[in-house]
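Sequence in, structure out.
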Amino acid sequence: MSSSSISAFVSCEQLGGGTREPDGLSGTWTGSARQTGGGSEEQTYTVVMRLTGTESSIEYPSLGCGGSLTALSLDQDRAQFKEHITYGNCVDGGTIDVERQGDKLAWKWSGFSDMAVTAELETAAP
């Protein structure tokens, strides 16, 4: 990851014989991510995550990079995705965990032991 914003497209993999839609997570979510560790100064950037049953996306608008997410696990209020950066200069291979907490979405990126990226996302206006 870096200090600007990222764009990534998300595809839910088939789990249990069919693509499952994360019903409690569906929609467009947005917020400010905070990145610490990783040998650099603390950074913040916008996250926009669109979750649907067949094709979802994540954007980090100021980083200029992105890719796909493969669903590792899904249920009504939480999901885990593997990130695959396909363009730009962002770190590839991270894991994104999301959990619905009331009307917000707790978002966490991990991939390196000394780097943490967290955000609290809210439903974006249509």
